[in-house]
Specification:
Elements: H1 6-33, H2 38-46, H3 65-78, H4 80-100, H5 103-114, E1 120-123, E2 139-142, E3 146-157, E4 164-170, E5 180-186, E6 192-197, E7 208-219, E8 223-224, H6 230-266, E9 268-269, E10 272-273, H7 278-306, H8 310-339, H9 341-344, H10 350-357, H11 367-379
Parallel strand pairs: 1-4
Antiparallel strand pairs: 2-3, 3-7, 4-5, 5-8, 6-7, 9-10
Helix pairs in contact: 1-3, 3-4, 3-6, 3-7, 4-5, 4-6, 6-7, 6-8, 6-10, 7-8, 8-10, 8-11
Bound molecules: flavin-adenine dinucleotide (FAD).
Amino acid sequence: MIPFTDEQKMLRETMRSFAEKEVAPLAREIDEQERFPSESFQKLAAMGLAGLTAPVEYGGAGAGYTELCIITEELSAVCLSTAASWGTHACLCLDNIRRNATEAQLSKYVPPLCRGEKIGGLAMTEPSSGSDVMSMKLRAEDKGDHYLFNGSKIFISNGPVGDVFVVYAKTAPEKKAHGVSAFIIEKEFPGFSRGKKFEKMGWRGSPTGELIFEDCRVPKENLLGKENKGFLVLMGGLNTERVCLGAMSLGLARGAYEVALKYAKERVQFGKPIAAFQLIQAKLADMAMEIELGRLITYKGALLADQGKHREMNLTAAYAKLYTSEAAMRITTEAVQILGGYGYIKEFPVERMMRDAKLQSIGGGTSEIQRMIIAREILGGVAE
Ligand SMILES: Cc1cc2nc3c(=O)[nH]c(=O)nc-3n(C[C@H](O)[C@H](O)[C@H](O)COP(=O)(O)OP(=O)(O)OC[C@H]3O[C@@H](n4cnc5c(N)ncnc54)[C@H](O)[C@@H]3O)c2cc1C
């Protein structure tokens, strides 16, 4: 049982009803058409939720990470792609800007992002640099009054539709991890273009693309945080991103479980509802238990983030990301199994949920990387 405040409980009820009425009916369509859920995104913006954690004076809701996770869980229970599109904007882009921007950057970028007039993204991954993120090659050369960008980013959520991106680049390649800086990039900057839009197994309503920088001129004032300190921006943001990904996996798993539970009570075989069979009961029991465990660790991560306890958060964020993503894969797969042949066809949402689940153990740091982080925390120097 999570000790939510009355406001948080109300937010959860509002979001549950919004997700069921407005988001769920579009889930299959955006998956099939592989398109950004503009309708739901604009409705979330109209509800004041596009800039959830941004300061009120810049048009945000001034809320915390627990609220971010509540909304993420509810959206994910009916449509993971909508949660991904909104979360990329509100958490990966806007929250990183909020935490690191100057007053001038806050005034310029935050209000239109909060109003949903502009869509945000975050670009870290490159064709030859995924888990080993600090080996990135995108070069930002200091040219006096501007930086000159050359290189590319790959697999960027909201890449095909975004207007503003937090982008990491090398400002001092010889300094390796200490030569990375963060920037705010506008799609209008000369030399910026979009490359390929990727076709995917899941997360299909969250468009994923390539960003290309060819002699792209980036004004000096678009440096986010200090030069060569992008590592701090990146690491600060990754923990909250992982907790948020935990809330996505939790919501997804809960959504699949609720479909399977209802179906198991209604589907009759051998003269009984299939829920009367112990083999089905065991599946449902495991699903319910894993959802409860996932909820506890995810909201512990959100609480630590709200309390600014970044040291403790490292381990909890890795636990939340790892546990819930793998649980979501198991639970969505079992949901398909409980629905039998009906689980495999598109009239029921569980086949989409199972496809969506796979990305949860890849994006934002793979399961292998989370296990490495946990091992490093519990073993200290022995794991190096
Ligand atoms: C749909 C989608 C959306 C995404 N959105 C974004 C986004 O918005 N922004 C962004 O920057 N990136 C994004 N990504 C990229 C994502 O974060 C990376 O794909 C992920 O970090 C893994 O990197 P990689 O794909 O290069 O795999 P690799 O790093 O090449 O890993 C391949 C395999 O090797 C394993 N491995 C790697 N290193 C080790 C090691 N040291 N020990 C053991 N095993 C290891 C990995 O766990 C994995 O199993 C997205 C990806 C997808 C598919």
